[in-house]
Structures are given as C-alpha cells and as structure tokens.
Specification:
The complex is a heterodimer of chains A (830) and B (115). Helix content of chain A is 32%, strand content 18%. Chain A is an alpha+beta fold. Chain B is mostly helical. Helices cover 79% and strands 0% of the residues of chain B. Chain B has helices at 2-20, 26-37, 43-65, 72-80, 86-113. Chain B is elongated, with a radius of gyration of 15 Å. The chains are: A alpha+beta (830), B mainly alpha (115). At the A-B interface, helix 1 and helix 2 of A face helix 3, helix 4 and helix 5 of B.
Chain lengths: 830, 115
C-alpha cells in the first residue's frame, strides 16, 4: 500500500515539475517563469535597478587601433532615462552606447535582426517559415554582408562598429552570464523567458541587418507587376490617364527656382515592357507604404520670431513597443551630439549638435525592379542574357525551425539579383520567372553618413557626409546655427531611361540593367531658397525640369501641400507654431473632394434627400458642417473615411480581382476623376450591375453603402464608437503582438495623408523640433519609453504625452558637470 | 504541534533555497526530506506540511517584491495569462507550487512509514 502511495505521490510531483519545466506550445516553462525570485518577478523594475554602478578594468579585446584598448567614461541617466554618454574618446562613447542599448533593448535588437535575416522560425517555430524564406529570398543577408565589407574598409566606421559591438557583448557577458559563461535565467530580459530562448553574441553583421531591416521597411514594395498587368488590361492611353508619373498639381521638394544646369549621363535605351501574360495576385505582396512616410522641414531665420533657423522632423513608421527609437547624447572630445538612435546601431540617426541639426524622410524613389528570366530549353540551369547564356547561381539557405527539422531552401540568383518566388513550393505562376534587382543589396556604407553628420559643423560638412548614403534614398533636411537651411534627396540612384523599371523588364536585354548611377552631386538639393523654408513629405522631389527620369510608386500628394501652404503663410515662427504644425489634423483629401461628393444632394433636404439611408441621419448633417479636421473626438472624419473608402472601392471595381495582381489609382487621381472627367465616363460604371452608373450614381451608392456600414457598426458597438480616434483605433503593439504589453486605442487624431500621420498602426515615431540658437534648444517625444522592459515604468511613459501632442525638453549638456548635476543615476566605466 | 514545527522549519529552508538558488523546484526536495526526517501521522498531514510552507513562501516572496514595482509587471503578466489581476496570479502560482511541495511530502512520508 505505502509503496503505491509513495509511487503515486512521487511520480505525480516529478511529473508536475517536469511539465512545468518545459515549454508547451506558446506557454513558457511555467515553473521557471513564475519562480517568485528568478522568474518574471526578477524583471519587475525597482529602485535598485536605478542605482549608480561602477565597472572597472574594461578593455576592448579587438580594437581597430591596438594602442587604445581602454574604455573610460560615464553614462548619466536623466529623469526620462535618457543616457548622456561622456567618453574619453569616440571608441569609449560607442562602447558605452552599445552597453546601454543592450541594457535596455537587447530583446528588441535580437528580434529585429533575426527578422531581417529570416531566422524567426528558429525561435518561434514553423509558423514563421514562409516569413523567413521570403527574407532569405529577397537577399537581406547578402545585402548586410555587402554592407559590412564596405564598412570594414573605412577605418572610422570600422572602429566605431567594433567598439559598439564590444559594448553590447560586454553587457551580455557581464550582466547576463555567470563565470562559467552560462546565462543566468533571472537576469535575462523578460521576453527571452517568455519565448524561452537565449540571446546570441552580437556581431557587426547584426547591425548591418538592422539597417537592411529599415531599408526593407522603406523600399520593400513596388507596383511594377501591377502596372504591367494594368497596362495590358486597359492600354496605354487609359494607363497614362489613371496612373500618371507626374500628376497635375504636384508640389515638389525642390522649389522651381532651382536651375539644373547639367546634362544627364547617357545610357542605352531599348525594349518594351513584358506583356506576355497576367501575373497572379499574391497574398503577401506589398504594393504601397501603408502609411509609412515622414515629414521634415526647416525654416530660415528671417521667418522666425527669434531669428534662428528651426528644424523639424517626424518619421512615420510602425508604432511598436519597445519603440524603434532610443534617445541618447554622445559626447567625446571629437563630438557632442543628441538625438534618436536605433538600438542595434551606433551613433545618432536623427538629431543635432552644437552647430547643426538634421532629419530624414523617405525619398520614395523606385529602387526595386523586376526582370523576366528566359530559361534555356526550359530548364532552370541557364538563362538568356546579353546575347549569351548565363549559368544560374544556386545558393542554399538552411533555415532552422524550432521543434522541427531544418528547412533547406535553394535560392536562384541571376545577374540582376535573386529570384524571389522560384521553386517556392506552391504555384506562383509567372512570378516564378522573375528576378529582383534591389538597391538595398548593393554594397554601401550608410553608417559613414551618420558618423559624419554627428560631428558636422556646417553646410559643407553636411553635404560631404551625404555622399556615402546609398539606400534607401532619403530627404536629409538641414539647419545650422549659422542660419543656413538646406534639403537634399540622397541615394545611389540608377540613371534610367523613361519608364525604365515602371514595368517588368526583360532580363535578356542588358539595356534594361542599371547601367549607370546619377552622380551624387546631381541629386536634387537646395540651400537657402528664397521662400525661406525647405520641406519634404515623401512627395516628388523635383518639378519636370530635373534632367533625370525617375519614378516612385507612392509619392505623397497631400501632406506636402498642407505643410507648404502653412509654412508659406507663416511669419515670426516660434517653436510652438511648428509643434502645432506637426500635430496638424487637416484632411486635404476631404477638403478637395467632400464638397464634390456633397454636391450631388444638390440642396435637397439631406435627411429627406434622394437617398434613403435607414434611420441614422447624423452622418450627413455633420459632414456639411465639418471643418476637415481629423480631430480625435468628432465623428465627421469617421463618416467621411467610410464614405471615401466605399467610393474608391466602387469607382475602381475594374481593378479588384481575386486572381490577378492589380492596384487602384491613387487618391489624387480619384479626386481628379470626380472633378474633371465626363460624368458618364466608363470607369464610373460598376461592372457587376446591370444598369450603367454615372458619376453621381457612384457617389450616392457609396453614400448609401456608408450608411449601411454605419448602421451595422452602430448595432455592433454602439453609436458612441464613431468618434474618430475610436474608429481609427491606433495601436502601439508589442513586437511579439502580446496585448498585455501593448498600448491600444490611443486618443489621437490625424490619418494617412495628414500632417499628423497617425493611422491604425503607423504614425510619427519620433517628433523633434530644434531651434538653432546658441545654445541649441530642442524638443522631442516618441510613443514609447526608453526602457524595453515591460516591467519598467519607463517602458511606455511617453505615450500619453505623445498622444496629447506634448514635447519634452531634450537636455543637451555641453559639459559633463552639467550632465552629472542633472542625473538620476550613473554607470561609470574605468 | 509537530505539523506546525515541520511547517516552520520547511518554510525557513524553502525561503533560503528559493531566494538564493536558481532551480525553482528545490522546495520539493525540501518537503520530501522534511517528511522523512519529521514523520507525521497521516498522508494528509504530510500533504499540508508540504503545501503550506511552499505556497506560503511563494506568496510571501511575491508580496515582498511586488510593491517595489507598484504591481506594474505582475498585473501585465496576469493579463498575459488571462487572469483578472496580480493577486489571482500569485495565488494560483503559489498553490500550484504548493501542490508539488505537498505531493513530494506525501511521497517522503510514505517512504518513511514503510518499514
């Protein structure tokens, strides 16, 4: 009996321990995780975590310059947990930056670089396999490896990355591991415990992967395939009408006073676009930026109240926790710079120093083209190129999968680049014969630009820094204490013949290659224009006098005009004025199109108008009175947006197809069509109905459809949920999509194509306003917090201020003494 | 009386192992050995002599640490497991640990009484 009792109790307790020590599906090893001392509670931040510490005898194992291996400096954390890093030399500064990035953001750094290199299946299992395969097949790792080779050739950037990497690894080694080089479970960042894996040693390649991850966010989409299908379907005339390269009324970055007095480099032109068949619609294909974009501008001293130039920047990116950005001040005898850094990369990406400030927006230029490959005898061994046959290069990718065998993938590489969908395992139709040419894979050293900008003193040094920046093409805005302002669109951009790369190119013909590059000095730029300001918001960079052909799939047409309208009319500008401009909620689209939409009711009593739209009468009423502001607490923007979405859907029904890849015309063209096309123009007709619709029919039908949607939404969630912020529903999600660690339904206005570009998942990821006085006065905020630890009060403490449009004073210390006086605690390295 | 003594000694030992040693289930060895060293009258008594100190010490450790963090993380982790609040999380976790401790004690007790 007792033996039975022993066995039952013994086995039961051992089994329970075993079970709770193991990961079960997505549930972490619960025993370890819930351990009140070493489990998640060890990540609950307390006062002790904010106490000063000193670390002794830190040296670099492999310095770029063997004479200087010692690390010496201090990190002073201010009351917002922003580190002010004062180092004895640059090497120490970058080492300390690596150390604090790792201390506060290690899991994020690890995850983003894993995502970039297609290594998520390794930790999250087979569900991520297709994601990983796509990353491998787009050449992200090859791009990072190429970038690393370039970076290593340059002594400055090489020693910078070595010191930075060593700083990250110093943290991993000294804080997360025991003397036996094993990880201490209690010390691991929370998400490693939750997802049950351990961080890897950092390498310079990982920092390069992070840059490629950004490049992919900004340039990992195009319309080439869709345009190829559309022009085949509707012909050249209609295509030019609906999808113009340069629509009427564009307001470019470079004002028209700029004279381009050079002759562009000549290249071979040839070929027609591929028109052999239709490309299938692919589920995960990205054709637009999805609200990723940015604003920046600088105003000249003559336009400001205090007589100093003021620079502003707000990059619109996916809103996540931990935040993409991490504020930092870096100070050594060679530099003193403050701004937003990317955890995983050394230096400051957007910021200012004592003399200059700079910011970036995405250039929007098309840097990704597709080439049709012709196989020899139908076998995937050789392909036609430049009157000969080339052997295909096969690269084998081994993808480790958690809880499963390794997945072996073969990627075919042509002279143009990788074939993304060949032998993908499911039928991708003609996509299987396409090779991708993508500028992000080419060798380049973007770090050099930031390295030089961080210590630039004037306009010439700003210009000099930019030449190293290749991809993604960015609009670098500039302002200096001297009063100079400037903007440059910089990237290593191919010289293209007209419409080269708008459609699928024929890979056989070398005339379709990127034959030459625009000299960087001939990229669009302007210094101190007569209008007294420079600005960019992802629109066309130039007017039609620019000598080079270029295209882009997603140039902005609204935000830029609003910014220029307002800046043009402003005088005696203050920092507060420009903060308000960054928060501007004016809906340019609505202002241009809503009057036309409302006109169809033509003065009839709207509630008894020609449309019977059930019982809900409010939408119409408040649309007439609306001032076109997408403010958070009003309902008009919601009704307008639903109506507008429905109108676009109905109007462009010709391009909604289950099987074939199409896109619909841009919103600017929809407005133009409603304004200028004959009311019975063919596209106004809805193909699926028996009657022939005119322009007014479409407007009324979409209105009716809006009221139906409104009614059903009201039944579902109640009338109180039509306030704009609730409908728009901005979520700042944890990178692992865990709601408990996310911040949802943020109270904020704005939308896509609005200066305050806050949509459901994207928005101003960092807002910065810098007055170039002496000393510089700077203000900034981002929707997150300095700590990546969900157990810290500094994890999301900026979000409410960000949503409310408030800014923090960015404390930029000129001396270490001042930093020390203002510090909450210090980490000292001797 | 003996039960209370057992609980107090176990609790002290568990507090030590849990605080300073990283293996979360050492408490089961403590209650197992305690049940051999200090036999009680019945299996149920052993069970509670195991459960109470383990659950109690876990709860104590949670409650000692949690206020320093103003329950910030514990409430988030509770939400992660779809529990209403941190107290429910603490109680459930402590009871599960206690159950293991209790079963280990029953096993230890059975071993001792066997001869």
């Amino acid at each position: 009996m007792r033996i039975d009792k022993f066995l039952i109790a013994f086995i039961a307790s051992v089994a329970l321990i075993f079970l709770l020590n193991k990961q079960l599906g997505s549930i972490p090893p619960l025993g370890k995780f819930l351990d009140p001392v070493h489990g998640y509670m060890a990540n609950a931040e307390t006062e002790k975590d904010l106490a000063s510490i000193t670390l002794n005898n830190i040296t670099l194992e492999t310095p770029a310059d063997p004479a200087t291996s010692g690390i010496s400096g201090s990190v002073y954390f201010d009351d917002r947990l922003v580190p002010h890093i004062f180092g004895a030399d640059d090497q120490s500064v970058y080492f300390l930056q690596g150390y604090v990035h790792a201390k506060y953001r290690l899991w994020q750094m690890e995850t983003q670089t894993r995502a970039a290199s297609g290594r998520l299946s390794e930790i999250l299992g087979p569900d991520l396999l297709n994601f990983d395969r796509e990353k491998r097949r787009t050449g992200m790792v090859a791009g990072a490896e190429n970038a690393l080779k370039e970076l290593e050739k340059d002594h400055d950037t090489y020693s910078c990355i070595l010191a930075y990497t060593a700083g990250i690894n110093e943290y991993i080694h000294s804080e997360l591991k025991n003397s036996g080089d094993k990880f201490i479970y209690a010390s691991l960042p929370l998400e490693f415990k939750l997802l049950n894996y351990e961080p890897e040693t950092w390498t310079p390649l990982k920092s390069m992967l992070l840059l490629k991850y950004m490049a992919n966010t900004l340039t990992g989409y195009d319309n080439d395939i869709e345009y190829t299908n559309i022009i085949k379907k509707i012909g050249r005339n209609d295509f030019d009408l609906l999808f113009p390269d340069r629509p009427q009324g564009i307001d470019p970055i470079i004002p028209s006073e700029k004279v381009y007095d050079y002759v562009p480099a000549k290249i071979d032109t040839a070929m027609d676009y591929d028109s052999s068949g239709y490309y299938k619609k692919l589920d995960d294909r990205k054709t637009e930026s999805d609200g990723v974009g940015s604003n920046n501008w600088a105003v000249a001293p003559a336009k400001t109240k205090n007589g100093h130039a003021i620079l502003c920047n707000d990059p619109h990116l996916q809103l996540n926790l931990p935040s993409l950005w991490y504020e930092v001040q870096l100070s050594s005898p060679e530099q003193n710079v403050y701004g937003a850094s990317l955890p995983g990369a050394p230096g400051v990406i957007i910021g200012f120093n004592d003399s200059i400030s700079w910011g970036v927006t995405h250039g929007g230029r098309d840097v990704r083209d597709w080439y049709k490959v012709t196989w020899r005898l139908g076998k995937r061994e050789e392909y036609r190129y430049n009157n000969g046959w080339e052997k295909i290069e096969k690269r084998v990718e081994v993808i480790k999968v958690k809880g499963d065998d390794d997945f072996i993938d073969t990627v075919y590489w042509t002279v143009h680049g990788p074939m993304v969908y060949t032998d993908f395992g499911e039928d991708k139709g003609d996509w299987e014969n396409l090779a991708m040419r993508w500028a992000a894979i080419d060798p380049s050293n973007e770090f050099k630009t930031f390295y030089l900008l961080n210590r630039a003193k004037n306009y010439d040094e700003y210009r000099n820094a930019l030449q190293y920046f290749s991809c993604p093409a960015q609009n670098f805005v500039f302002a200096a204490t001297s009063g100079d302002i400037a903007i440059t669109q910089q990237g290593k951009l191919a010289v293209k013949w007209p419409e080269q790369g708008r459609f699928v190119l024929d890979g056989k013909d070398a005339a379709g290659d990127w034959q030459n590059y625009i000299p960087w000095e001939e990229n669009p730029f302007i210094k101190n224009p007569s209008r007294g300001f420079v600005s960019s918001a992802n629109q066309h960079p130039t007017d039609s006098t620019y000598p080079y052909y270029y295209t882009g799939s997603d140039f902005e047409f609204f935000r830029n005009r609003r910014i220029n309208d307002l800046l043009g009319g402003m005088q005696n500008i203050t920092v507060e004025d420009l903060e308000h401009l960054q928060q501007d909620n004016f809906n340019y689209i609505a202002s241009e199109v809503l009057p036309i939409m409302l006109k169809v009711f033509d003065g009839s009593d709207l509630n008894n108008g020609p449309v019977s739209y059930s019982t809900y009468d409010k939408p119409y009423m408040n649309l007439e009175e609306w001032n076109y502001m997408n403010d958070p607490d009003i309902t008009a923007p919601t009704f307008f947006q639903i109506w507008w979405d429905e109108l676009n859907r109905m109007l462009w029904d010709e391009f909604h197809n289950e099987d074939t890849a199409f896109i619909i015309p841009d919103e600017y063209y929809t407005i133009l069509a409603l304004k200028t096309l004959p009311v019975d123009y063919k596209y106004f007709d809805i193909d699926s109905t028996k009657v022939i619709e005119s322009r007014n029919d479409i407007i009324l039908k979409s209105f009716k459809s809006m009221t139906v949607i409104v009614d059903s939404l009201a039944k579902e969630t109640g009338y109180e949920n039509f306030e704009w912020y609730k409908y728009k529903h901005t979520n700042i999600l944890h990178l692992a999509q865990l709601p408990a660690f996310s911040s949802e339904n943020i109270h904020n206005g704005g939308y896509r194509h609005i200066v305050n570009a806050t949509s459901g998942r994207n928005g101003p990821s960092w807002r910065m306003v810098v007055e170039m006085s002496d000393p510089v006065h700077a203000y900034g905020v981002y929707p997150g917090g300095q700590s990546g630890n969900p157990g810290s009060k500094y994890y999301d403490n900026f979000i409410s201020d960000w949503a409310a449009g408030k800014y923090f004073i960015l404390k930029f210390f000129r001396t270490e003494e001042k930093a020390k006086e203002n510090s909450m605690f210090t980490i000292t390295f001797k | 009386m003996k039960l209370i003594v057992s609980i107090i000694i176990s609790a002290a030992l568990i507090y030590f192992t849990q605080s300073y040693l990283a293996t979360w289930w050492l408490f089961a060895i403590v209650t197992f050995i305690m049940a051999i060293a200090l036999p009680l009258k019945s299996g149920w008594r052993h069970f509670f002599a195991g459960l109470i100190p383990v659950a109690g010490v876990w709860m104590l450790l949670y409650l000692m640490q949690d206020p320093h963090n103003e329950s910030l993380l514990s409430n988030k982790v509770a939400a992660l497991f779809s529990l209403p609040n941190n107290m429910v999380l603490f109680i459930v976790a402590s009871l599960v640990a206690g159950l293991i401790g209790g079963l280990a004690a029953v096993a230890g007790g059975a071993l001792r009484k066997k001869k």
